[in-house]
Amino acid sequence: MLLNLVVLSHEALGGDVVNLTVTDSAGNSSGCSSVVTVVDIVLPIVLTTDGTMVFDTSATAQITAEDINNGSWDNYDISTLQLDIDSFTTDDLGRM
Q1: Is there a contact between 43 and 51 (Cβ–Cβ < 8 Å)?
Q2: Cα end-to-end distance, the chain, whole Å
Q3: Of 28, 59, 88, 94, which residue is most buried, by most CB within 10 angstroms?
Q4: How far is CA 14 from CA 32, 38, 48, 52, in A?
């Protein structure tokens, strides 16, 4: 038996054609193709760190996802880091 694709990795996400050829001891062979679909079902791991924010002269402070990201990772690739709140005023003191 001969298989044209043995190892599939995250680079192969989506459908890939895999060909299987079977040869008997007399040298006769036959083949067939199948579509193998690779999917990523592993959730990303989110790691954050606490931080201190300093208000600017307009009494506001802003953070980015990169400011509190502490090495989040995924087995494939992280496409975005997104915060639900990224801007703060003095009204937020003590509430977060």
Answers
A1: no
A2: 62
A3: 88
A4: 20, 5, 31, 42
Token pair of 58, please? 């307009």
- CA distances 63 to 49, 79, 89, 90, Å, are 12, 19, 12, 15
State how far the Cα of 51 lies from the Cα of 70, in Å rounded to an integer: 11
Instruction: List alpha helices for the chain, DSSP H.
Output: 65-68
Extended beta strands in the chain, E state: 2-3, 14-23, 29-38, 60-62, 87-89
The predicted pLDDT at position 6 comes to: 58
Taking residue 36's Cβ as centre, other Cβ atoms within 10 Å add up to 12
Residue 47 CB partners (closer than 8 Å, separation 6+): 69, 70, 71, 72, 73
Q: What is the pLDDT of residues 26-81, one digit of tens each?
A: 999 999 998 888 888 889 999 999 988 888 899 999 999 999 999 999 988 899 99
36/44 Cα distance (integer angstroms): 24
